[in-house]
Recover the amino acids of this structure.
């Protein structure tokens, strides 16, 4: 695990490299991007002789495979958008390289009943390859960002050390971030945000299995720590609902995001106008995806840090019976303050909070603390060393006991 490739030199990929430069568990880290200028610029700005930038077309499996083979990499972190998962995932298996990503392969809604029944689940393509990865003795660690990722580590930690039985694992995300000078400036990839927010939200229950609802359904007010306060959260499609039940014994899993009424309204308008679509349309003789146009006209989230202020919170609210036999409700969470992440690594809070977790995981794998084979989620590993190392990185998690939601 001494030679690492990060594919994607955008906000999260650049933040991952910036965080990694403080650690000594690797010998070489190469940032690869379709835009070689961007990759080279990020590597040069970090000023670490162990880092370099190069070009790769991550949409082509054979090109990714050649890049991984020629670079003799031990691990590849996929920091591209989920559309690129299949070729990078397949190339890593072909070359025999440990694979990590922060978002799994995309879902496909049910063709006739999308708001009650799931179609193809998030990550289904990757989990279908689990046996093949196991036979080869190779590891694909999927969904190891912050959500999914750290939120799943929290679920495992709660199950192992805090609860004798779990009723619900409820992932809740909220922030009070603002960006000066922009009426609408998402702090994360709008392409990915549209995908997860406008797809039918997924819920899992032990007695019912997986089912879906309407987008933005079941609003609830959740009170977030770190000075954020109460925010209305709504159902959103997310990987935790797929990952948690595979390894954690519980009755129910949900994911809700504090989007805000204005953000929801913008997404609904994009959907009504068809601007959330991914199939190319012809515009003045050119083929272009409507969603790519939306992403192109909005500011790059990676560039917003110096105009952003506030705190973002990612966490997992677990309810059930505590280890002492009494009812328990605990919110395990992680805060990222934009002022602090900018001062530390020059990265805005949302991308930084996402990026720190795969770097922690890579260090645990490099040191042999985590190991495994197959397509595994964060829940498949011991949570304690992850949380301990996260604190050593200077970004510890928090915990609040609550008798009820909020």
């Amino acid at each position: 695990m001494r030679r690492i490739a990060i594919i994607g030199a955008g906000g999260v990929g650049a933040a991952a490299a910036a965080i990694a430069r403080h650690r000594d568990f690797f010998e070489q880290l190469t940032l690869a991007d379709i835009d070689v200028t961007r990759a080279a610029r990020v590597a040069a700005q970090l000023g670490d002789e162990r880092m370099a930038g190069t070009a790769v077309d991550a949409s082509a499996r054979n090109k990714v495979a050649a890049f991984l083979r020629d670079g003799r990499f031990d691990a590849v972190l996929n920091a591209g958008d989920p559309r690129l998962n299949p070729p990078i995932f397949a190339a890593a298996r072909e070359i025999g390289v440990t694979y990590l990503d922060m978002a799994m392969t995309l879902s496909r809604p049910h063709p006739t009943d999308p708001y009650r029944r799931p179609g193809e689940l998030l990550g289904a393509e990757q989990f279908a390859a689990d046996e093949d990865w196991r036979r080869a003795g190779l590891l694909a660690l999927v969904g190891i960002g912050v959500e999914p990722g750290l939120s799943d580590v929290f679920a495992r930690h709660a199950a192992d050390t805090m609860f004798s039985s779990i009723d619900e694992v409820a992932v809740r995300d909220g922030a009070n971030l603002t960006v000066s000078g922009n009426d609408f400036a998402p702090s994360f990839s709008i392409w990915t945000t549209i995908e997860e927010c406008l797809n039918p939200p997924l819920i899992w229950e032990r007695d019912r299995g997986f089912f879906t609802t309407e987008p933005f359904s079941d609003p609830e007010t959740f009170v977030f720590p770190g000075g954020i306060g109460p925010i209305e959260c709504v159902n959103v499609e997310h990987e935790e609902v797929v990952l948690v039940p595979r390894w954690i014994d519980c009755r129910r899993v949900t994911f809700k995001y504090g989007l805000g009424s204005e953000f929801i309204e913008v997404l609904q308008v994009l959907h009504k106008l068809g601007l959330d679509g991914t199939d190319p349309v012809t515009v003045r003789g050119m083929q272009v995806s409507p969603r790519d146009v939306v992403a192109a006209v909005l500011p790059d989230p990676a560039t917003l840090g110096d105009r952003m202020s506030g705190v973002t919170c990612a966490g997992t609210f677990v309810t059930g019976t505590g280890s002492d036999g009494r009812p328990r409700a605990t919110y395990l969470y992680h805060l990222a303050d934009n002022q602090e992440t900018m001062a530390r690594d020059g990265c805005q809070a949302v991308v930084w909070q996402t990026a720190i977790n795969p770097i922690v995981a890579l260090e645990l794998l490099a040191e042999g603390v985590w190991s495994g084979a197959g397509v595994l989620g964060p829940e498949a590993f011991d949570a304690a060393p992850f949380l301990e190392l996260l604190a050593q990185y200077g970004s510890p998690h928090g915990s609040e006991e609550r008798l009820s939601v909020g």
Notes: The chain has two domains: 3-101, 150-349+397-401.
